[in-house]
Amino acid sequence: MKPVITTAMTTLVALGVISLAAPASAEIRLGASVSATGPAAFLGDPEAKTIEMLVEQVNEAGGINGEKIELFLYDDGGDPNKARTFATRLVEDDEVVAIIGGSTTGTTMSIISVAEDEEIPFISLAGAIQIIDPVRDYVFKTPHTDRMACAKIFTDMAARELTKIGMISGTDGFGASMQAQCHDIAAEHGIEVIADETYGPQDADMTPQLTKISKTEGVQAILNPGFGQGPAIVTRNKAQLGINLPLYQSHGVASDGFIKLAGAEASEGVRLPGTALLIADILPDGDPQKDVVTSYKSAFEGKYEQKVSTFGGYANDAFLLMTSAMAKAGSDAEAIRNALEDTSGLVGTTGTYSFSANDHLGLDLSAFRMLEIRDGGWALAE
């Protein structure tokens, strides 16, 4: 029986990833470690499901040049020590030729140490800039960096003549990194941070910090670098305090889950940089990402009966990048690394990727969309 080819699978065929001519025989071993459970499950659960779905699609359609993908997938629960252990197991016991994963910055950095030592190509799904700056030979990533998120937010603030801001940042790896990156480039965009507060990963009330920010003379907007439940609490607390200032969040909470957790009323008007995936239904027909994001959204939501998220999109893009490289390089780790670095013009849900020896992210600010929450959903900011 001839396999049914979705638009997503058509993309893989066009890339030369899927071979429909003959049944798959040999296997290409692909490893993954994501945070499918634990505090970062909102990241890792859709990532794990996406990878499993795409492996199933590719194998049912004939594999990569006639070779099936054998997936070794581990749940590190957001624990960097477990991530390092699983990365070592993937290389030494499972003998994978490539790894996808690292839902968080912390778990990613643990996997990096193994990938670099063992010379295994690794595509991270986390946001911090230090993952790919400085460039490491075997490390790539799919999400925009936190530094890029700061730049996108500050550009929007400047356009709205919001130049004096208060920051309230999570002390987790992502929040602390983005806080530092925003401070580093604020002046370049004409932004002055005149209030600066933080909160811990387990904090359940940020009203003291928000009160200090709101009472700081001259503050015009609030920026919250962070991910997980913290930004939702900040959003709810701000509404409860009646603080009438624009609120910006990071791409670390770009999902419907954030709106649900924060509440539609409290999150109304919140702005953040996000991907085309969150506004797939309103993308114009001429948008170069429309086919990719709508096909992924349709496949994921049809299979799992849950809303698609930006984070699953990161895994989708990592899989497309890795399997495209495998189609050119076979199952040799070094050749896969070289093929990844040669990737040019690959359209994903997050943007269009073009890597080089000096750039293992391959995205620019144009891939970010400035989004606003309106009536409990996502819209393009105006």
TrEMBL record:
SUPFAM superfamilies recorded: Periplasmic binding protein-like I
Keywords: Amino-acid transport, Signal, Transport
Family label: Belongs to the leucine-binding protein family.
All residue ranges annotated as the Leucine-binding protein domain in the record: 27-362
GO annotation terms (biological process): amino acid transport
Keyword ATP-binding: no
Signal sequence residues: 1-26
Any matching Pfam family: Peripla_BP_6
Keyword Nucleus (UniProt): no
Organism expressing this protein natively: Cohaesibacter marisflavi
Name used for this protein in its record: Branched-chain amino acid transport system substrate-binding protein
Top-level taxon in the UniProt lineage: Bacteria
